[in-house]
Amino acid sequence: MHDVIISLLLAIVTASQQSFTLEIGSMQLYCPLIPYSYAHLELLCKGVYSADLYLKYKDGLTSVDAPYKIFYYNQDGYYVLFVSLNDSPVQRCNSTIQLDDELHFFCGVSRSPLIVLGSQFFCHKDLMSYVDDLLYACTKPGDLRFFNVEWKGVATIHYAAKSESKNGSASGILGFETWLVCLVLLQIFKLLSFNRFEIHVSYQFLKQNAAVLHVRAPLHSS
């Protein structure tokens, strides 16, 4: 019950924080990863999605403690960054990552594609501050190549399907108090839903293995 109350308080704080939304006029249909299909992206760092990141960005497509990895491709000082969030075979690849035209993943030199269910690729030029924070969280106090000079590049964020929560009693049956808290939490989310992270899809095209979404989203919090 104590954990549920803490979760409730965290949700209230998260929902009450204001977010900025990108204006429709700033939308640019753009996906930086697609032109670099078949390039081998090197592993830069790996991390765990923190509560601070969740509170700042309210990203409903991932969760606190979700693993993530960042891969990169350097073309004459111009970086293509690829962030993969949530548990998937990508998280267990400690070599390079390669994608083909159908957005299948290949680890290292293997020609057998990784099975990554529920993939979504989010492509937008204004993702960079989010990626900067993810970079800082997983590289500190290490690789400073992205922080000692002003670097140039683009980024794509990949979301694998979120893992289901394993909260609850051993029997899988929640007590009355827990159900009551959940009902209160649901009402709070309904009342404050205008402040939650929302993704407005402006354009999408389907690949065999994934959906590529160009989005407008509140990426910053005040």
List the main descriptive attributes of the protein structure presented here.
222 residues, alpha+beta, 7-stranded mixed β-sheet, two-stranded antiparallel sheet, 11 strands, 23% helix
Polypeptide structure, described:
With 222 residues, the chain is α+β, with helices and mostly antiparallel strands. The chain has 4 helices and 11 strands. The protein has helices at 2-16, 51-57, 128-139, 176-191, and strands at 19-20, 42-48, 67-75, 78-85, 97-99, 105-107, 120-123, 152-159, 200-206, 211-216, 220-221. The strands form 3 sheets. It has a 7-stranded mixed beta sheet, with helices on one face. The longest helix is centred in the C-terminal third of the chain and has 16 residues, at 176-191. The radius of gyration is 19 Å and the shape is globular. It starts with a helix and ends with a strand. 24% of the residues are buried. The model is unreliable at 4-29, 166-174, 188-211 and 213-222 (pLDDT under 50).
Lay out the secondary structure.
Elements: H1 2-16, E1 19-20, E2 42-48, H2 51-57, E3 67-75, E4 78-85, E5 97-99, E6 105-107, E7 120-123, H3 128-139, E8 152-159, H4 176-191, E9 200-206, E10 211-216, E11 220-221
Parallel strand pairs: 4-8, 7-10
Antiparallel strand pairs: 1-11, 2-3, 3-4, 5-6, 7-8, 9-10
